[in-house]
Structures are given as C-alpha cells and as structure tokens.
Amino acid sequence: MAIIFREEQPYPETPSDRPHVIVVGGGVAGLAAAHRLLERGHDITLMEADSFLGGKLGAHQERDDLRQYNASPDAADAFGRRPCSPCTQPCCKTDRAGDWHEHCYHMYLNWYHNFWDLMRDIGAIDRFEPMTEITHLAPDPNAAPLRAVNPGSPWTIAQNMACGVSPPADLFLHNMAVLDLLGTPERDDHRLDRMSVAAFMLEHPYTTEESRKASHRVLAKAFAAPTAMASARTYKTFLKYGARLPEPTMWLLDGHTEEAIFTPWLKALADLSGKFRIDWKFEGERHAFQQAEAHHRALARTAEEQARLPAFRLLPLMKLAGAELDPATGEFLLRIVGLDHSPSTQPDLDEGESRFQGEVWRFGGQMILAIPPRQMAQLVHTRDRDAPADHDVCLAAADPALAGATRLGGAPIMTLDVRLRRPLVKPLPRGIVLLLDSRYEMSVYDNSQMWRSEETDGPLGPMISVCASDAHDLMPYVGQRNGAQVIADLLLRELQRYIQFDREADILHCRTHLQTNAGEELFINAVDSWDHRPRTTTAIPDLFIAGDYVQTPVDVVTIEAAALSGLMAAEAVRRRTGLGRPIPITLPDSFPGAAMKSAATTLRPFAYAARLVAEGDRRIRDGYAGLFPRT
Question: Are 549 and 557 a contacting pair, CB within 8 Å?
Fold first, then answer.
C-alpha cells in the first residue's frame, strides 16, 4: 500500500474569528459534542473513518463494507453468503445492495436523559416505540414464548417470578442479590470495581447457580460480558438507574438508524450552520448526505448569515492516523489519511495495490477524540508522519494517562442478517427475543416487524438479525477461507433449536450478511478497568476525549454513556474557549442506597428460606430427569 503525503499545511486554510474544533469520530459521542458546540458558535470539522455516521449505532449497506474493506461483492466468502439452491430470485444482487444492516440490535432505556434531549432537538423522538416485555425462547421450536413484563419494576416482580424463565424461588434469589448489590456502599478502595459480578454473588451464600444465571443472561447478552469478567460496580450502576425508571422496560427504533436518527441529525446540524459542507467525492450516492445538503440549500442563507453563523464540515472516509504536538507552538500536527477503496479513486494502479491520499495538518484549535479504545490506543502512540516510532514525541508522551487505553478490553458481538423467502411458520414475538441456554449467548430480532421506511412503500420483506454475544468459539474461523460461511452455518444450526425453518428452502443465502466485528470489538466494563479509562480532559490543554468507555457518572457502556461523554467534552471545550452558554447535562436519578440496604436486610431471612426451596426443587427435577431422561 502506498500513501502519498502532501506537504504540511495549516488547517483550516481560511480561518474565521470563531474557535475551530476538530471532532474525530462521527458516532453518538462525536455528534453530541459537535451539535452542542455548533449551537454555541464554534466552527466544526467532523472526521469519520466510515462512509456513514453513527459508529456502532450506525446503519450501513453492502457498498459501505466493500468500499472500506476492499472486498468483492461476488467473492464466495463475502459476508458468509453463498449461492442459493435453487435460485428463485435472479435479481438478488440488486436487492441485497439495498439491504440495511446494523451492529446488532439497540435498546434505548428510560434513563438515557441526555440522549432523549438530543433526539427531541433533532425531531426524531417520535420514531421510538415503548416495549414492555422481554421474550425468551426455550430450545424447543414448539414451546410457547416466555415473557417477562418490565423486568426490574417492583410492580411486576411477582408476575415475572412465575413467567417460567427460571424457577420462582431462584428468581426471588436473583432479585435479592440485586437488592444486596444496590445496597452495598461505595468505598474509597473501589472494592466493587475490583470485584466481578460472579464473585459478589458467591459472597452471598443464599444464591444458587440458577439465580446467578439470571445476572449472567443480562450481562452476556446485552454487554458481551460474562459475570466472571464484568465489574460489580458497573453492574450496580446499570441496575440502580434502571430500578428508578423501570417502565417501560425499553424503547426500540421503528426504522434503521441512518434514516430515523442520523439523517435528521445532519439536517439539524445544517440548521445551525452558516456554511455546511460534506466532502463526498466517492463512487455512489449517500441519501443522508444528499438530503442534508439539500436541506441547507433550501435555507437560502444570505452572505451575512453565512459569515455570522458557524461553519460545519463533514469528512467521511477520512482517518486521523497519527498525531504529534509541536513543542515550539503547542499546535497539533495531524496525519490525515483517506480510506476509500472505490475503483474510481484508484487510477493507474497495479493489481492488488491501493493508494491513499494523505495530508499533514497543522492545527491550533481544540480537538475531541471520539474514537473506540482500540483505535485510541494506536493513535496516541503513532507519529504524524511515516517515521520511526518515537515514544518521546507521540501524544502518550505528553499525557501518559492516554496509554491506559491499551489496557482496555473488548469482545466481538457477531451479527448475522438473514433474508427469508417466506414468513416463518411460527412468527417471532415482536422486539428482542433472548434464546435461553444458547451456545453463543444468542438473541434474535425480527427487523421486518419493527422497521418501517419512509423511502419505500409497504413493509420490508422477512428479515431477522441473529446476534451472538459470546463469539469466542467462532473467532478462530475469522479470516480463514470459507470461514464466514462456517460461522453463518453454525449460527443457523443453533437457531434451529429454537425456531422452525429449513436452512436451505427458507433462506436466501445470497443475501446473508455476517458481521464478525473483528477489530471493532465492544468495550467491556471489566474488573479493575476504571482507572485505565481516559478522562474527558487531558494533560494536553486542547485535547479532549469522548466515547462510551470514557469515565462518566453513567459508567456502563451504553448509548447514554456515549452521549454524556460527548456533552462533557463539549462543555470542557466551551470552558476552554469561553464561548457560549454552559451545556446542560442531566444525570440519572436512583433510589438511596441506604433504603436498598434496609430492604435487603429485612428480606434476607426469606432469602435463606427460598434457597432451601430452590435446592429441594432442583433435587426433585434432577431425580425426575434421571427416571425419565430426554431422548
């Protein structure tokens, strides 16, 4: 791969008298920061390595993956697909190009106050639907679904204890352990952060193996973090905010995120801007970008308005590949690299060669890094040019705390999007469906029931998304020839234990889309990780950090953590520049810990009684299973 670098140049080339902020990363954190700073009169350059906005929340199509990873749509192993037998839809190539894909499903909780404020501001709040149930399927296609109503609500505890997911006594013990965790005070030695959820549960002798599984189901499926790895402090934070606002249990989006969230968000940024520019010079169109630019043109800004209002510039498929500080001036030296692999941008190259356009910017404003921890760890140790590594000149040398990102772990959550020839014989319940005791901690989501599109008429064809939160046994196949097809087949085999379908007759394999997410792992709130997570501000006065892994009061890796971190970074920039009013930030409420501890103390005798009942019930069931084993 050849990288052509132009000579160092100042950025922006024609500065205004307003502060200029570069935001690196167009996910929720980066957009939240850009939005609030633009409101307060800062010029914004938003740089995004993908061809779409949203990061892990973003929606993309086949061409986005092909462009970024230089893959062929007809490769035998692309996305785990293979030719259908028989082929009943010869136009599948055209159809699959229009399929939308997301990085697993997304749940939006009541206590996401800052996220909801942003959604109201951009006019997207009406695209969310309340969901009061979480459905579970047992490994039997003929079994009835098991439904938990508003889990965590005190008003549905008795109802959910009888829902069938676990024996009632064990579910009572799970709730008791949650109450004990909520009542455990924080200590100066950060004991809960250094203790796993599994260790905390085992400290309480009334818990049973089945009761501990309930916590494992929550953490493994939602956060890809088994209880032996997840921080007890983080789990407590997640539970205490949810317990305060438990109904409805969650909200789901009624369409893919590009259309329902990020297109209106771009239009909202256009409303705030005097000059609005999207540098899209690549093959193919992107409707979100076109609509935002058309929206800004329709505003018909006068020359006076363009000069008075702040400017916004979006740079998709551009990556910050290295950075240094000029010791003489304190300015940033930024290595900017284009990531597009489109054939139209690759003229006169030998086969197998790629060439990127590179630039080195000299920038004297503020910069917010809103990129994942893995990319952060690489960036802060990489120089601004293709030169030998030198610890003394990289960003980590200026602020050693930034090197903590190298210690942050993650886990891939694989997603398999499956197009069906016909509706399932037994329709899936609406919303998120958890598969009990599945090999890969799987869950499934029927997109065709939830998604509506303003771009097309009529409902979507049958499409389900299968999410594997524990993909460790599948990772060895990633990168192998035919490996994606093996992963897809293993996931479909496991899915057949829960849902009735024929792997050959019912599936359009030519439109299967597997996302292994290798290299784009979800950050895990692991034991003893808090001190290694970056803070919003750094020892470099004009450098700020945002992202769901940054230290915030929310703590848990969630959409709200990303939004809150972006607002915190924006407020830190605002204080640095002195421009604009303070940025409002809302913290979630929770019940007093003392009240939780008092309730746990009162109920503890009942917990030991419930354990006796649970153990007696287990012995009876084990004995019955021995007499009448399943065939």
Answer: yes
Strands, E assignment, 339-478: 355-363, 366-369, 410-411, 414-419, 432-435, 442-446, 463-468
**What are the φ/ψ torsions at residue 131 (nearest 5 degrees)?**
-125, 125
- Nearest-angstrom CA–CA distance, 505 and 87: 10
User: Which residue's entry shows tokens 């598969």?
Assistant: 435
Q: What is the pTM of this model?
A: 0.93
Task: Kindly report whether the peptide bond that precedes residue 12 is cis, defined as omega within 30 degrees of 0.
Answer: yes
CA dist 113 and 526 (Å) reads 25
For residues 112 and 586, give the distance between their C-alpha atoms in angstroms, rounded to a whole number.
9
As given in the structure block, the two tokens for residue 510 are 């030519």
Query: Distance between CA 233 and CA 300 in Å, rounded?
Result: 52
- 3-class secondary structure for 448-491? HHHCCCCCCCCCCCCEEEEEECCCCCCHHHCCCCCHHHHHHHHH
Q: Running DSSP on this structure, what letter comes out for residue 530? A: G
Please report, as a single letter, which amino acid is at residue 19.
Answer: P
In percent, how much of the chain has pLDDT > 90? 69
Beta bridge partners of 4: 357
Secondary element (H or E) of residue 199: helix 197-202
**CA 465/CA 445 separation, integer angstroms:** 5
pLDDT tens track for 504-533 = 889 988 889 999 888 788 899 999 999 999
What the block records as the tokens of 234 is: 């983080």
Amino acid at the residue 418: V
Least confident of 161-165, 204-208, 260-264, 625-629: 625-629
Q: Report whether the peptide linkage leading into residue 19 is cis, meaning its omega lies within 30 degrees of zero.
A: no
Sign of the CA dihedral running 186, 187, 190, 193? negative
Cβ-contact 338, 3 below 8 angstroms: no
CA distances from 74 to 63, 96, 488 (A): 12, 12, 17
Distance from the Cα of residue 176 to its chain's centroid: 30
- What is the CB-side half-sphere exposure of residue 470 using CA atoms within 13 A? 18
pLDDT band for position 618 (cuts 50, 70, 90): confident
DSSP letter, residue 261: I
pLDDT confidence of residue 457: 47
d(CA 361, CA 497): 55
* Distance separating alpha carbons of residues 495 and 468, to the nearest angstrom: 11
336 forms beta bridges with 320, 359
Nearest residue to 89 (alpha-carbon basis) of 613, 557, 539, 509: 509
pLDDT in tens, 323-369: 999 999 999 999 999 876 554 433 343 433 344 467 899 999 999 99
- β-bridge mates for residue 434, sequence order: 136, 443
User: CA 545 to CA 95: how far, in whole Å?
Assistant: 40
**b/e per residue, 289-311, with b = 16+ CB within 10 A?**
bebbbebbeeeebeeeeeeebbb
The first and second tokens of residue 599, run together, are: 């309730």
Tally of helices (H runs) and strands (E runs) in the chain: 19, 24
CA 259 to chain centre: 17
Which is nearest to 406 in space by CA: 319, 520, 533, 517? 533
Structure tokens at 125: 């709040």
Which amino acid does the sequence have at 400?
P
Nearest-CA neighbor of 367 among 38, 32, 46, 41? 46
CB of 27 within 8 A of CB of 569? no
